[in-house]
Amino acid sequence: MLKGFKNFLMRGDVVVVAVGLIVALAFSNLVKAFTDFVINPIIARAQGGNSVGLGWQLGQAGNKSTYLDIGSFISTVIYFIIFMAVVYFLIVEPYKRYSARRGAVVFGDPGPVKTCPACLSEDLPAAAAKCRHCGTDQPPVAGTPRP
């Protein structure tokens, strides 16, 4: 039982995912610091004066719980975009190249699909002989070999 668990943990995919998560967490802290200490001050300065940030006070002046802070939302969107770009270019792309060298296709484009004329489900593979939802025979699509 323990040997099987060890084999599961030592598979290449599990190790790659674990390293990817650790790297993603490290980059998350870096990107958060960038947005907190660079982007947020720029957005706060855009409103001018002695404002807390880019936004509006909805209730009593000085009450932070009723302050609609658009600047923080913009900063969070920028954080998300930067973070996802880092994950894509530093984790997903190298993993795709590594997997391609091993002969496996990951994150590939989905294959062509067709619509079932009986139940109108639109997610059948183009080469399907039967519908996975209603079980009816499917007419062949031109150019696809029939099994």
Strand line-up across the major sheet: 1-2
* DSSP strand content: 5-15%
Average of per-residue pLDDT values: 75
Q: Helix fraction?
A: 40-55%
**What is the CATH superfamily classification of the largest domain?**
Large-conductance mechanosensitive channel, MscL, domain 1
What is the C-level CATH assignment of the largest domain? Mainly Alpha
What is the overall shape? extended
Structural class: mainly alpha
CA-atom Rg in angstroms: 25 Å
Provide the descriptors you would attach to this structure in a database record.
single chain, 147 residues, mainly alpha, Non-ribosomal Peptide Synthetase Peptidyl Carrier Protein, Chain A, 2 domains, two-stranded antiparallel ribbon, two-stranded antiparallel sheet, 3 helices, 4 strands, 52% helix
Structure description:
It is a single chain. The protein has 147 residues and is mainly alpha-helical. The protein has 2 domains: 2-102, Non-ribosomal Peptide Synthetase Peptidyl Carrier Protein, Chain A (Orthogonal Bundle), CATH 1.10.1200; 109-139, no CATH class. It has 3 helices and 4 strands; from the N terminus they run ααββαββ. The chain has helices spanning 2-9, 12-47, 70-102, and strands spanning 55-57, 67-69, 113-114, 124-125. A two-stranded antiparallel ribbon has the order 1-2. It is extended and about 70 Å long. It starts with a helix and ends in a 22-residue tail after the last strand.
